């Protein structure tokens, strides 16, 4: 299976690929990881609440933990679920959006929107959970 496909189910995401990172980015040209999550949820008919990004990792972790009240935790990845990661040890500070059970789309500082495999050596040991919007 190719990493990049035209759609994931009814979700078209190809136009987001290669967009640039910016703190507080909510599109259409710049995104941060939560801004990208918001945009992808909007495309499947879900309006997520606003959370501004913070440059301090501990504050990012608190925002993600707060957001978990609005999401139910999953045992395994599902299409259109959120995956959380730690970048610095033991601080959950990054989000991705599962396109299917094996691929996710995300953006990080000093990078662009990209699709990667969840079971890659880079990501598989950094996963802190999978979540789906409750409402």
Topology:
Layout: E1 7-8, E2 11-12, E3 20-21, E4 30-31, H1 33-43, H2 57-67, E5 71-74, E6 82-86, E7 92-98, E8 103-106, E9 114-117, E10 127-133
Parallel strand pairs: 3-4
Antiparallel strand pairs: 1-2, 5-10, 6-7, 6-10, 7-8, 8-9
Provide a quick synopsis of the model.
By secondary structure, the chain is α+β, with helices and mostly antiparallel strands. The chain is built from two helices and ten strands; from the N terminus they run ββββααββββββ.
Q: How far do the termini sit from each other?
A: 32 Å
Judging from the principal axes of the Cα atoms, what is the shape?
globular
The tally of helices reads 2
The tally of beta strands, per DSSP, is: 10
What does the average pLDDT come to?
85
- Name the beta content range: 25-35%
The helicity comes to 10-25%
Structure characterization notes:
The protein has 135 residues and is of the alpha+beta class. 16% of the residues lie in helices and 29% in strands. It is built from two helices and ten strands. It has helices at residues 33-43, 57-67, and strands spanning 7-8, 11-12, 20-21, 30-31, 71-74, 82-86, 92-98, 103-106, 114-117, 127-133. It has a six-stranded antiparallel beta sheet.
